Amino acid sequence: MNTISSVCVYCASSNQVDSRFFEAAERLGEALASQNITLIYGGGSTGLMGRIADRVLARGGKVIGIIPDFMEKVEWAHRGITELHIVGDMHERKKSFMDRADALVALPGGSGTLEELMEAISLKRLGLYNKPIVILNTVGFYDPLLAQLQRCIEERFMNPDSAEMWSVVAHPEEVIPAILRAPSWHTNAIERAALK
Asked: Which has the closest alpha carbon to 9: 141, 140, 136?
């Protein structure tokens, strides 16, 4: 069983999304705070980013934001969080997410969220990352991506057990249990990555 003290949540900054996505972000924030798990996230003040950070803070939890300097300069940063770290670029931000957190969680989001999630899966497949990855599939948002990943497996672009690299849950309250029971990935992942 995994132990966790911090979780990185990939999520979006749009304020225009369906209210169900905001509700899920709030409920996840409550779950993290109730377990004294530090939220690590993109450092923004709007959208699902702002909502989950505000909910963790409102429940007495700790929030660490990591934002690249070009976003901070246009005032996207949340000024009320516990710690705000300004980094040089998006690559440094993503590396810091992975280094600091005990697990990664993807909420619904746009191209940035999808890119972060897919990079994490790719690095895990290569054995360069071995922490839990959980996809919060609110109202089936990730169904098309999960279907595409399954097709990658079926068409032998990925190993048959590749879906064990991530867990999928439908409700925010299932995220922490999914992290705790996530199986460890292969220690020889790099040797298995190229299907021969």
From this structure: 136
Convert the pLDDT of each residue in 138-160 to its tens digit. Answer: 999 999 999 999 999 999 999 99
pLDDT tens by residue, 4-60: 999 999 999 999 999 999 999 999 999 999 999 999 999 999 999 999 999 999 999
Which has the closest alpha carbon to 42: 128, 102, 106, 136? 106
Please state, in angstroms and as integers, the Cα–Cα distance from residue 192 to each residue in 96, 129, 157, following that order. 26, 14, 12
- Residue 182's alpha-carbon distances to 7, 18, 80, 128, 161, in angstroms, are 14, 29, 32, 17, 14
- Which residue from 160, 183, 158, 179 is spatially nearest to 169, judged by alpha carbons? 179
Task: Give yes or no for a contact between 54 and 48, defined as CB atoms under 8 angstroms apart.
Answer: no
* Domain coordinates in residue numbering, the chain: 6-178
Q: What CATH architecture does domain 6-178 belong to?
A: 3-Layer(aba) Sandwich (3.40)
Percent of the chain with pLDDT strictly greater than 70? 100
- Is the Cα dihedral 114, 120, 125, 130 positive or negative? negative
